[in-house]
UniProtKB/TrEMBL annotation:
InterPro entries for the chain: Lys/N-term_MeTrsfase_sf, Methyltransf_11, SAM-dependent_MTases_sf
Domain of life: Eukaryota
Annotated ranges, domain Methyltransferase type: 81-182
Positions of transmembrane segments: 513-533, 545-566
Species of provenance: Arabidopsis arenosa (Sand rock-cress)
Protein name: Methyltransferase type 11 domain-containing protein
Length: 767
C-alpha cells in the first residue's frame, strides 16, 4: 500500500486512483486489485534487491534480541499492515521469517494473496482488517513493517486523523523492544507526524535506501520501543550533508531531522512541549493519578477511538488545601473566545481553575473542526479520555462535570439569510460582544459596540468577514431634516400633537477599521515591499493588487480607502457574495476597485498566459473600454492575496481551498508576479502537518518566505508572504520598513494604523 504523486507515472494506467480520498476507500482498492489480478504484484516503493541489505540486518538483530522462546528468525513475529499485493512478505518468508501476519482492508487482495501462497508458503497469515482499528492483541508483535501504508493515509488534504489512528495501533501491538519500521518517501507532513508520535520511550534511526531507475528516494525510519520514558535524539545511518540542497526529498528530510532534534534537545534542557495524551499516560509529567498543586501541562487529545482532535491544558489547582466541589472538571472554550486573555494566558487560566472549584481542571479548546458537532457529541467523544486523566478519587460515583464558556456574544440578530448553489447557506448577523476589543474601549463608552459578521453554515466556527457598525452621520442628518420638515407641516395644519418615536440610530459598516486580525496581518506584510510602494506613490504609479476571494468586500474596501495609490481587482467565484457585500456591508466598486465573477485559479493563469502572448502580439487593436472580466488589462499584479475558504475542511485545511496551494498554481503565481511582487496566503489549519506541507511547497517555489502567527496561543491562523526577488529585507530591517508603511497608510482611525504596525513585529523570515 502507499502512493505519492511523484510515483504516479509508474501507475499511469490506473487513472481511477486520482486522489488519496480514493486511496482510503476499500471499494477503490478492491477495484484496483481486481484489475491487476493475483499474479501481478505491485511495488510502490523500493523493490526487494534494494531493500534486502538494509532490512535483513534489522530483522536478524531483532531475532537475536527477541524475548521469544528461541532465537531463530522463524520465531520473530512480524506484522505487515496495508500489505497489498507486494511480494515483500514472500521474500521475508523465503529468507527464513515464517511468523508473518499480513493485513489489508481489501478482501480482494487478501483472497488473491492467500491463493497465491497457500501451497508454497503455507505459514503466512492473511487477514482482512482496517489498519486504523486492528483486532489484534496488545504487545503481540516484535516488528511492524510498513511499506508505504502511513504515506497512503497522510495526503495533506485528508489530514492526520487516519495516520494518527494507525500509529496508535502500531504502537499498541508492538512488544517492548519491538521495532516499527516505516518505508516512506519522507514528505514533510508525514515526517512531522511520525517524529512527533515516537518521542518518549522510543529510539529512532533513519536509513536511506539506494534506488535504481527512479528519481525518488525511499527512506526507512526505525523506531524501537523501550521500557523507559527517555527522549532520545534521532540518529541517521547516513551523512546528512550527503543529501543535496537541490534534492527536495533529501533537503526535506534534513530539515525535518534538524527541527525535530532541536525540539528534543530543548525539551531535555527543560523547555516545555506540547505533549500527546499517550505521552502523559507514560508518566512523562509525573503520576496523573496524584494531584500536584500548580501543575500545568499543555497537550493534545484524540487519536484512536476518538472522532476529533483537541488542544487542551491540564491544570491542578495551585492551593490543594482548598475544599473542592469537584475532584476533576472539564472546561470547554469555544473558538470565538480562545484568543481572550482569560483562556489563552497562564494567569487567566488559573483564574478559571479557581472559579471552577475543581481540584483538577482540563481546559479543552474547540476549533472549526468541531463546528458540526453538538455538545453531546463532544462530551461523548471526550468522556473516555477525560476519565483516564482524572486524579485518583475514593468516591467511585463522583461525576466529572462539563463546563463551558459562553460564546462571548451578549446579543445576536440575524440580518439576512440566503442560500447559494456554490457556498451553501450564508448568514449575515449583527452581534454585540460581552467585552469590546481593547482598541475600541474608548469609542462608545455609553453604548454597546455592534459588529456585522458574515458566516457560512458549512464552517460555522469560522467568521468569514467582520466589520464594526457605526452611526451613519450622513443618513442621520437627512433623517433629522425630514423629521423637522414633517413637524413644520403638521404645525401649519394645526396638528400640535406630536408622538415622540424612540431614537434608533441608523448604522453603517465602517471601512476604516479592521475587525479581523488576519486582515491586519495581511496588510502588515506590505512592510516587506514598502520601499517599492513608497517609490510607486512618489512617481504616481498605481500598485496593481489582486484579491482572490471577495467575502463581504471588507479587505478591498479598506485597501481602497487607506492606500489611495492602489488599483484593486477582487475575484469572486460566487455572484451571491457580491450582492451580499453590496447590500449589507457597504461594498462599492469603481475605476480603482473592480470585481470579477470568475474562477481565481483560471484568473491567475490567464494573466500568465496573456503576459506571454502580449510580447508576441501588440497590434493596439483593443478598445479602451474594459469589460467586467478583463484581467488587469493583461498586466501582472504587484500584490496577489489569496483569501478564500475551503468548501471541505475535513482534511484539516480550512483556508485556502487546496487548489490554491498546489505546486502548479504556486508556480503560475510566481510567473504572474514581477520581481518586486508579493504573494500573500491566509492559511487556516489546526493540523501542523498540513501547515508544514504548505510552507514546504511555498519554500520550494518562492525565493523568500515570511510568516506571521496571529495569536501566540492559537496556532490555527498563519499569514504567509512569498517574495520573488533574490534580494529581500532582513528581519532587522523590518522596523525601518514599517515606518515607511506607516507613512503610506491614510487611516482615519489611528488605532487601526497602530494595530497594523504592531503586527509587523511578528513577521518572521522562514526562508
Amino acid at each position: 500500500m502507499g502512493k505519492k504523486k511523484g510515483n504516479k507515472a509508474a501507475a499511469s494506467s490506473d487513472d481511477f486512483l486520482q486522489t488519496l480520498e480514493d486511496f482510503t476507500s476499500k471499494e477503490n482498492w478492491d477495484k484496483f486489485f481486481t484489475l491487476r489480478g493475483n499474479d501481478d504484484s505491485f511495488e510502490w516503493y523500493a523493490e526487494w534487491p534494494q531493500l534486502r541489505d538494509s532490512l535483513l540486518p534489522l530483522l536478524q538483530d531483532s531475532s537475536s534480541s527477541s524475548s521469544s522462546s528461541s532465537s531463530s528468525s522463524g520465531s520473530l513475529q512480524i506484522l505487515v499492515p496495508g500489505c497489498g499485493n507486494s511480494r515483500l512478505s514472500e521474500h521475508l518468508y523465503d529468507a527464513g521469517f515464517r511468523d508473518i501476519t499480513n493485513v489489508d482492508f481489501s478482501k480482494v487482495v487478501i483472497s488473491d494473496m492467500l491463493r497465491r501462497n497457500i501451497r508454497t508458503r503455507p505459514e503466512l497469515r492473511w487477514r482482512v482488517m482496517d489498519i486504523t482499528k486492528m483486532q489484534l492483541a496488545d504487545e503481540s508483535f516484535d516488528m511492524v513493517l510498513d511499506k508505504g501504508a502511513l504515506d497512503a493515509l497522510m495526503e495533506p488534504e485528508v489530514g492526520t486523523k487516519l495516520g494518527n489512528q494507525y500509529l496508535s495501533e502500531a504502537k499498541r501491538v508492538l512488544k517492548p523492544g519491538g521495532k516499527f519500521i516505516c518505508l516512506t518517501l519522507a514528505e514533510s507532513h508525514v515526517l512531522a507526524l511520525l517524529f512527533s508520535r515516537f518521542r518518549f520511550g522510543w529510539k529512532m534511526n533513519v536509513h536511506s535506501i539506494a534506488q535504481k531507475r527512479s528519481n525518488l528516494k525511499t527512506f526507512m525510519v526505525v523506531a524501537e520501543k523501550e521500557n523507559s520514558v527517555l527522549l532520545h535524539e534521532i540518529t541517521s545511518a547516513f551523512d546528512l550533508l550527503s543529501l543535496g540542497h537541490n534534492d527536495s526529498q533529501g533537503s526535506g528530510m534534513r530539515e525535518a531531522l534538524e527541527s525535530e532534534n532541536q525540539i528534543r534537545r530543548d525539551c531535555n534542557n527543560g523547555s516545555d512541549l506540547l505533549y500527546s495524551h499517550e505521552d502523559l499516560k507514560l508518566g512523562i509529567k509525573g503520576d496523573l493519578a496524584k494531584l500536584i498543586g500548580g501543575r500545568r501541562i499543555k497537550f493534545t487529545l484524540g487519536g484512536q477511538g476518538s472522532n476529533f482532535s483537541y488542544r487542551a491544558v491540564l491544570l491542578d489547582a495551585q492551593k490543594q488545601t482548598e475544599p473542592f466541589v469537584y475532584h476533576c472538571g472539564v472546561f470547554l472554550v469555544p473558538k470565538t473566545r480562545a484568543h481572550e486573555w482569560l483562556f489563552c494566558s497562564e494567569e487567566g487560566q488559573w483564574q478559571v481553575v479557581e472559579s471552577s472549584q475543581a481540584a483538577r481542571l482540563i481546559m479543552v479548546f474547540l476549533d472549526s473542526s468541531h463546528s458540526g458537532a453538538t455538545m453531546e457529541d463532544i462530551q461523548n467523544d471526550l468522556s473516555p479520555m477525560v476519565t483516564q486523566l482524572a486524579p485518583r478519587n475514593d468516591d467511585e460515583e463522583a461525576r466529572i462535570p462539563y463546563m463551558m464558556a459562553s460564546d462571548g456574544i451578549k446579543k445576536r440578530d440575524t440580518v439576512h439569510e440566503v442560500t447559494s448553489s456554490l457556498t451553501g447557506k450564508v448568514v449575515v448577523e449583527d452581534v454585540v460582544y460581552e467585552s469590546a476589543p481593547s482598541n475600541l474601549e474608548d469609542l462608545s463608552p455609553s453604548s454597546d459596540l455592534a459588529f456585522r459578521r458574515l458566516v457560512f453554515k458549512r464552517t460555522e466556527g469560522l467568521i468569514q468577514s467582520e466589520a464594526l457598525l457605526v452611526e451613519d452621520g450622513e443618513i442621520l442628518e437627512q433623517s433629522q431634516k425630514e423629521k423637522t420638515k414633517n413637524v413644520s407641516q403638521s404645525k401649519r395644519k394645526g396638528n400640535t400633537k406630536q408622538i415622540q418615536e424612540p431614537s434608533r440610530p441608523l448604522m453603517r459598516v465602517s471601512h476604516d477599521y479592521l475587525a479581523s486580525s488576519y486582515h491586519t496581518g495581511i496588510i502588515s506584510g506590505f512592510t516587506l515591499v514598502s520601499s517599492y510602494l513608497k517609490k510607486a506613490e512618489s512617481c504616481g504609479t498605481m500598485v496593481k493588487t489582486v484579491v482572490i476571494g471577495l467575502g463581504a468586500g471588507l479587505l478591498p474596501m479598506f485597501l481602497h480607502g487607506c492606500l489611495p495609490f492602489f488599483s484593486i481587482e477582487a475575484v469572486e467565484l460566487d455572484p451571491v457574495m457580491l450582492n451580499v457585500g453590496k447590500d449589507y456591508f457597504g461594498f462599492t466598486h469603481n475605476d480603482r476597485l473592480k470585481v470579477h465573477i470568475a474562477d481565481g485559479i483560471k484568473f491567475i493563469r490567464d494573466i500568465t498566459n496573456s503576459e506571454a502572448s502580449s510580447e508576441e502580439t501588440s497590434n493596439g487593436g483593443s478598445n479602451g473600454d474594459s469589460t467586467a472580466h478583463n484581467t488587469l488589462g493583461g498586466t501582472c499584479p504587484d500584490i496577489l492575496i489569496i483569501d478564500v475558504d475551503s468548501a471541505d475542511s475535513s482534511g484539516g485545511l480550512t483556508c485556502p481551498a487546496s487548489d490554491f496551494i498546489e505546486e502548479t498554481f504556486l508556480l503560475s503565481v510566481k510567473r504572474a508576479l514581477p520581481q518586486h511582487g508579493l504573494f500573500v496566503v491566509n492559511l487556516v489549519s489546526r493540523s501542523q502537518s498540513v501547515k508544514d506541507m504548505v510552507v514546504s511547497r511555498m519554500k520550494k517555489v518562492f525565493d523568500h518566505l515570511f510568516g506571521l502567527q496571529l495569536e501566540e496561543e492559537d496556532d490555527v491562523n498563519v499569514v504567509l508572504f512569498g517574495l520573488c526577488s533574490e534580494s529581500v529585507i532582513s528581519e532587522s530591517d523590518i522596523p525601518e520598513s514599517a515606518v515607511i508603511l506607516e507613512g503610506l497608510l491614510k487611516c482615519q482611525r489611528l488605532e487601526t494604523k497602530q494595530s497594523i504596525i504592531d503586527a509587523t513585529k511578528k513577521l518572521k523570515c522562514w526562508k
